[in-house]
What does this fold into?
Amino acid sequence: MRSVSFLTLMFIATQASAEAPTLGAAAIEGFLQESVPICIAAPAEDCIDAGWNHTDTDADNRLSASELDTVRSAVAEWFAWRREDLTRYEQSVLTVGIGLINAIGVERLVASYDTNGDGWVDRSEALADIVQLDGRPLGEIIVDPNAVDRAALAQRLGALSPILGRLLGQESR
It folds into this structure.
C-alpha cells in the first residue's frame, strides 16, 4: 500500500518557495514542519494530539464544523501552493481526499461523528472508527484493515465509501 510520503512532505515543508503562501497554506506548512517528524515515528496518539491541537483553535477539547472547515480550506490552499512539489501519486491522494471532504461537506461529516448530538466532535467520537491504537505510527494504523473499522467508516460516508476504499487501496465495505 502506497501512502503520501511523510518524508516527501517534510522535504517540501523545508523548501523555500518563490510564491508567497496564503495564511492558511502557511499555517499548514508550519503544522507539517512540527508534526511530520512526530507522525513518522511516534505512536499514533502523539500524531493525533498534534493534529487535534492544531485544529482545536479555541482549546475547548472538541471540534466544531467551523474549525474543521478552516483546516479543510487551509489544506486546499497548501495543496494549491505546493502541488508542483508533490509526486503524481501524492497529488492524486490529496485531490481525492480533498474532493471527498468537499463532497461530503463538513457539516455532514460532523453530524456523522457527533454521536451525543451536541453539535461538536470530541476525541472519542473522532476516533470511533480506529479500533487499535497500539503504539504504531498513525500511517501504519490507517492502512491496517484490522485497526480501522472500515464498515463503520463506510457507513458514515454512504454512497461515497467506494472512493475511500480506492484511496486506501482496498474496497471499503
User: Anything to note?
Assistant: The mean pLDDT is 87.
